Amino acid sequence: MGKVFIARQSRYVQEEIDAAVKRVFDHFGGIEHFISKGERVLLKVNLVSGHSIERRVTTDPSIVRSVAELVLSSGGIPFIADSPGIDGFSRAAEKAGFMQLARELGIECRELTDPVDLPVRVSSDYKHIQVSRQVIEADKVINLAKLKTHGQMYLTMGVKNLFGCIPGRLKAGWHYNVGLSRERFAGLLLDIYAGVNPCFTLLDGVIGMDGDGPTSGDPYEFGIIAGTEDALTMDFWLCRMLGASLEDYPLYLAARRRGMSQCELEPSDIAGEIPSDHVFPGVKLPQTQSMRLLPRIPFIERLMTSRPVHIPELCIGCGRCASICAAKALRHENKHLYFDYGKCIRCYCCHEMCPVKAIKFEESKLVKLVNYFTS
Predict the structure, then answer these.
(1) Is the peptide bond before 312 cis (omega within 30 degrees of 0)?
(2) Using CB atoms within 10 A of its CB, is residue 342 exposed (0-12), middle (13-18) or buried (19+)?
(3) Strand 224-228 relative to strand 4-8: parallel, antiparallel, unpaired?
(4) Is the preceding peptide bond at 219 cis, omega within 30 degrees of 0?
């Protein structure tokens, strides 16, 4: 039996979504294998910020409905939850369709707040991580991720989705603490994943995002729903299916450094309705860093890493970018942004939170020079 089951699903039609989600869970023994009567089950959606459903930034509510109804059918008590990076939770959840869904099903939709210490393993890189109390107190966590590219972390899928368990503005502090090192940030993600320990991860890849994800990219019809008890194995396999190199994927590099078994991929890991050697055509991957060209030391990384730049003609002057910047590296005045690139840690939160795509990436001059002489 494969560690990852992938169902084909090309449309957000509720009856079809229900059937596809059930096929995924049935491969692992059905929802009853994971959820018992009376258990409170946190449905951790992807609600990075307030976007309409059509933008394909957030987990589709049809996926959430399907899982919530399965949990209810098993006697569990589901609630929808996340912690957006900057937007007010109620506004963002309403825009993404989660509030309406919760009202229709008679369940809670709540913000992840009240930070408490996450139990961590002895081998963890970070010994003091705080996540929401609701995460710790839930009997089970089902991780409902979205398949997208990501400017900082290359891709965001199952493991990265759990970063949202860290409440609100604490996220910005972690971005600042790990600095320019994507591998260090990936180590943090591995620790959160191990501590939260979701009982199941379901990935919405019906229509995901490529290009400048996780919020400013383009919708891409992957046509899949994937499920697993092992989100790392799923993320690594899908990295390959997207036509990306694992050597460019910080999560893989961090896991390999720890000697994790999930780094050894086998075709038998994949079951379901697409083969393990499937490659999605024409996926646009982020071009924020050429990670393999030079040694990973801070000075070199800064020279090698793309920097965020402002597009004044698109700016609406909302100020979200300056508000979210943990490094205090940009100033917003009259629809103009002024970057202090000496302070900028290249976390790209400014790009991620911009609602109108007014921040883009500019490849570093050193990368352009190296590419010129090696192409």
Answers:
(1) no
(2) exposed
(3) antiparallel
(4) no
Alpha carbons within 13 A on the beta-carbon side of 74: 21
Beta bridge partners of 5: 227, 271
pLDDT at 289: 52
370-374 contact pairs (CB < 8 A, 24+): 370/290, 370/293, 370/294, 371/290
Extract the tokens encoding 312. 């004044």
Residue 118 pLDDT > 90: yes
CA distances from 133 to 46, 81, 172, 224, 292 (A): 18, 12, 19, 32, 39
Contact indicator for 175, 349 with CB cutoff of 8 Å: yes
Nearest to 352 by CA among 45, 91, 44, 50: 50
pLDDT value, residue 298: 53
Q: Per-residue pLDDT for 297 more than 60? A: no
Q: Which two tokens stand for residue 175?
A: 């971005």
Q: Which pLDDT score is estimated for 292?
A: 46
Does residue 68 contact residue 78 with C-beta atoms inside 8 Å? yes
Q: Averaging pLDDT over each range in 118-127, 224-233, 326-335, 357-366, which range is the top one?
A: 224-233
- The one-letter amino acid at 55: R
Rounded percentage of the chain residues whose pLDDT exceeds 70: 90
